[in-house]
Every structure is written in structure tokens, then in C-alpha cells.
Write a structure and sequence with these properties.
single chain
Length: about 180
């Protein structure tokens, strides 16, 4: 969702928009600032994370595609291993099923990129359902630090109130009271 900037609100006032519309825009602008704070929190919590021996994005896609060990090794060579911020939304979208095939180190490395892309509206599949329903893949989150878990919880709290997530609200609330509880 795009949030109005202070300049947008000034323009609305100058053009004589109805007061109720401007008040709604002011509230949306507050959500926009919260989103930017959340993005900063995510970047900070995952700042120094490297892939290490974890499963990479393309390697995980190879696992999903039942690729041979040799082919998965080829994919791994091309995987980003040092800077998760270099992962492009296009790659995350192309490899959306990789989330189910990442190990704990791979999840810790890729998760912030997926979260930020989702918040920016560039990840086409949404992360809330995956985080609200970890199911048998809970071990993927075993390496997250407390600060990283806090960032995931903050993300879930934020998207719980976003218009694009009405069907996930119950799942998000249950996850925040269950698996992601503090």
C-alpha cells in the first residue's frame, strides 16, 4: 500500500480536499511512518547476517524442482551468500517456493529480504501466511536471534492491520499468541 507523504497532505489541503479525506490521509501517513520504522528495525536486526553453509535461494529452488545434487551445487555457486540486501524482488518472486526448502541458516539470511519486499509491495506472494503458519517447518526459525524474532513479530503486528491481509488476521493473531509469542 502506498502511504501519503506530508507533501501529499499539503497538496490535498491546498486543493481543498474534504476534511475527512485529509484526516484519513493523516492517519495513513502515520502508518507509512510506522512501516518505515519497521523496515529500519528489520534491516538492523539482520544487518550482519551471512548465508554461511545455509541453503541458498536458487539451491532451494533446485531442491523444490528435484534437481540433482550436481545441479543444486551449480545453483549454489550463483546464490548470494554475503549480502541479503542484494537479493532482488524479482528473484524472490521467481523463487517463492524456496521458502519451504531453506534450512535455518538459509531462512535467517533470506527472511529480511522477503519481509522488506512484502512491505514494499514487490513480493507477489505475501509473507504473513508463511510466518503465521510455520507448521512442520518451525525449525527454519531456530537460528533467529531475539532481535530478529522481535522484527518478525513487529512485521506480523503491522500487516495484521493492513487492508491486504483480512483473511490472515486470525492466523496472525494465533501465531502471535503461539509460535511467535514473546
Amino acid at each position: 500500500m502506498k502511504y501519503p507523504s506530508p507533501q501529499d497532505i499539503e497538496d490535498m489541503q491546498a486543493r481543498g480536499y474534504d476534511r475527512s479525506v485529509i484526516e484519513k490521509a493523516v492517519e495513513l501517513a502515520k502508518r507509512g511512518r510506522l512501516k518505515e520504522q519497521l523496515k529500519t528495525q528489520i534491516r538492523g536486526a539482520f544487518a550482519d547476517v551471512r548465508l554461511g553453509d545455509g541453503i541458498g535461494l536458487r539451491e532451494a529452488q533446485g531442491l523444490d524442482d528435484y534437481a540433482s545434487e550436481e545441479k543444486c551445487a551449480e545453483y549454489r555457486v550463483t546464490d548470494e551468500k554475503l549480502n541479503w540486501q542484494a537479493l532482488r524482488p524479482e528473484d524472490l518472486n521467481e523463487c517463492n517456493s524456496s521458502l519451504s526448502f531453506l534450512d535455518a541458516a538459509g531462512m535467517r539470511f533470506h527472511l529480511p529480504a522477503y519481509l522488506l519486499a512484502d512491505l514494499d509491495g514487490t513480493y507477489e506472494y505475501g509473507m504473513a501466511f508463511r510466518l503465521a503458519n510455520p507448521g512442520p517447518l518451525t525449525e527454519q526459525f531456530a537460528l533467529l536471534s531475539e532481535a530478529q524474532c522481535d522484527a518478525v513479530r513487529a512485521y506480523l503486528h503491522f500487516v495484521e492491520h493492513e487492508p491486504g491481509y483480512p483473511f490472515y488476521r486470525e492466523h496472525i493473531q494465533a501465531a502471535l499468541e503461539g509460535f511467535w509469542a514473546e
